[in-house]
Amino acid sequence: MHLSHVCLTKPVLHGYFRSSCSWRVRIAFALKGIEYDQVPVNLIKDGGQQLTEHYKTLNPMQQVPAVEIDGITLSQSLAVIQYIDETRPGFRLLPADPQKRAQVRMISDLIASGIQPLQNLYVIQKIGAEKMQWAQHFINRGFQALEPILKQTAGDYCVGDEISMADICLVPQVYNAERFKVDVGLYPTIRRLNETLLQIEAFKASHPSCQPDTPADLRA
Predict the structure, then answer these.
(1) Is 40 strand, coil or helix?
(2) pLDDT higher than threshold 50 for residue 39
(3) Burial (CB count <10 Å: 0-12, 13-18, 19+), residue 60
(4) What is residue 212's predicted lDDT score, i.e. its pLDDT?
(5) Would you say 170 and 111 are in contact if contact means Cβ atoms under 8 Å apart?
(6) Which of 73, 70, 71, 81 is nearest to 109 (CA)?
(7) Across the chain, where does the E strand assignment appear?
(8) DSSP state letter for 63
(9) Longest C-alpha distance within the chain, in Å?
(10) What is the spatial distance between Cα 92 and Cα 124, in angstroms, rounded to a whole number?
(11) How far apart are CA 124 and CA 19, in angstroms?
(12) In angstroms, rounded to a whole number, what is the distance separating the alpha carbons of residues 52 and 61?
């Protein structure tokens, strides 16, 4: 595949250490062996740095991540993951087999569209005092659907025995589930896959506990 000279410039990830969507992109970059720069966007400080006019020019939704890559800016994590998979050699993030690729996309969308948005920071702030119960309800609802799907599709990883975009989505969502005190033990397939994936270097290096903007009290 021909790549323009702009690919020689390192991508820039504008993200937040604990953002699920930012973590997905960090995992993907690590799996593909892509060097990149990080520009922290603190979602709490100063009322939320993602709400500034400057950041709005990068991501009109005023969310993280925003990724500057190859002369364009992409602002949805699954779009970033699929773009780098289509434009960079090496480790495949989506399987070649059409059925497995569809399963990977199904699982990724279930998490990225059906679970995570209902307990992201913006929504939780609007919910207020009931935020813990709200998050637990929607994470459990999503996991109750995800668990039987993964029982059918999983081998060593979410779909068969190769790491994919589905795994990239799963691990940050389990991290969020644990933050909101969801009993992940109720979902043995999800728990097994998460434990396996957290032993892999790309998932460890991209973990929220060891990012440039991780607060000192949350560092591993």
Answers:
(1) strand
(2) yes
(3) exposed
(4) 92
(5) yes
(6) 81
(7) 12-15, 37-40, 66-69, 72-74
(8) -
(9) 52
(10) 34
(11) 13
(12) 11
Place of tokens 């993951």: 81
- What phi and psi, each to the nearest 5 degrees, are found at residue 154? -80, 145
- On whether the CB atoms of residues 83 and 69 are closer than 8 A, the answer is yes
**Alpha carbons 39 and 17: distance in angstroms, whole number:** 10
Residue 134 token pair: 């709200």
74 Cβ neighbours under 8 A, 6+ residues apart: 66, 67, 80, 83
Query: Amino acid identity of 68?
Result: E
Tens-place pLDDT, residues 121-173: 889 888 989 999 999 999 999 999 999 999 999 999 999 999 999 999 999 99
In one letter, which amino acid is 90?
A: G
In order of 41, 57, 60, 68, 94, the CA distances from 52 in angstroms are: 10, 9, 10, 18, 35
Task: Provide the Cα torsion 72, 73, 79, 83; round to 10°.
Answer: 30
Distance CA 53, CA 50 (A): 8
Residue pair 190/166 in contact by the 8 Å Cβ criterion:
no
DSSP one-letter code for 52: S
